[in-house]
Amino acid sequence: MTLTTVAPDLVIGRNNREKKMYIDTDLLLRMKTWRQHMHRFPECGFDLPLTADFVAKKLQSFGIEVTRNIGQQGLVGVLNCGDGKASIGLRADMDALFIQEKNAFEYCSEHSGKMHACGHDGHSAMLLGAACYLAQQKNFNGTVHFIFQPDEEHGRGAQAMIDDGLFERFAIDAVYGIHNYPGLAAGKFMLRHGSLMASETSFEIVIKGRGGHAAMPHRGIDPIVVGSQIIMGLQTIISRNLSAVEETAVISATEFITDGTVNVIPNTVTIKGDCRSFTEACLIKLEEAMERVVAGICHSGGAEYEFSFNNAFYPTVNHIEQTEHALQAAIKVLGAENVNGNCDPLTISEDFSSMLRVKPGCYALLGNGFDSVGGCALHNPEYDFNDDILAFGANYWIQLVRDQLQ
Fold it and tell me: By the 8 A CB rule, do 139 and 404 touch?
């Protein structure tokens, strides 16, 4: 990417379209340094003392008021300008993954078994860059809340901050989030109103039979046979309980565990798996149908069962008005030709969904590139965030604030 120093608020032409750029070369280089520092020292879950300290100190150095320890390691920076009563929340995630990095660049993870394999280091750096610019320029009227969240990867961080009073302690009118997306060209942007991402729910079925000698199965209750019938039965739920036009879902059995051996029919079988859907109403249908199938097959086979359905991520459902705001901001900074306002929904999950259940808002995806830097899939030991998109993300945040806080 060729870097050109530009003055704040300068409008420059590209591809015969005008695009607004706010981040100059100096700030972009600082953002890269911040991003690579966080990449070098990844932390996971709620255990983010170094990362939270780093982010908090940067915000404070910009003159932004910071409140720490919301939802354990979460923090919020508050920046006021003018006399406007409107407010906006911008959220970035800070946590890494328990993956051993296989990259060899100089800022590779120094924390064994941990790496930023999802780009949260980049998300935090983009939001820090926007915070730095907005604190310097103060060219808006209202209040910006910079939300830095722990433990997105396990789906607990957003809810922890909410439970700790995030939206009671801070008067936030609407909340927005962004994620990088490998496989989409750098600088491309996509979003949609309604369901953008699926829920993620794990299930566990414990089948209790009566084990015995493999040569005399008639003397017991074989949980392997019952369990096998259940797995096949689960596959009928999508096709026979959901609308082929209006509802989309996935049920995947991913583990089949027994306590038997080569010549022993087990007493117990445990089936574990994963469900995805795009609405909470569909989730309810899945849970009810799955237990009905399990109960019926176990009853017919004489077995007992235990069934659990544990939701980790709700569907990510964007609000119409806020999606339009996000769309217009993205068009201004990236150009209409680079923005897809009606992308296909994705079966991946995001715990920003919990915030969207409480406040109106929008979540969007920014291309991280392909066949080059940042082209590797998320959650891969060779992934790296593409520093060339830092300015795109920060410019989007700035434009969104300026549009909404006039």
Answer: no
What do you get for the CA distance between the two ends of the chain, in Å?
A: 32
Q: Which of 152, 350, 384, 387 is catalytic?
A: 152
Q: CA-CA distance, 188 to 165, in Å (whole number)? A: 35
Quickly name the fold that domain 11-197+315-404 has: Aminopeptidase (3.40.630)
- pLDDT-derived band at 246 (thresholds 50, 70, 90) equals confident
Percent of the chain with pLDDT over 90: 90
Reply yes or no on whether 304 is catalytic: no
95 as an active site residue: the answer is: yes
Q: Which of 95, 173, 200, 388 is catalytic?
A: 95
Start-end of H helices in 182-302:
223-241, 280-301
Burial of 217 (0-12, 13-18, 19+ CB in 10 A): middle
Per-residue model confidence as pLDDT tens digits over 268-310? 999 999 999 999 999 999 999 999 999 999 999 999 999 999 9
pTM score: 0.89
CATH of domain 200-313: 3.30.70.360
Structure tokens at 225: 């046979």
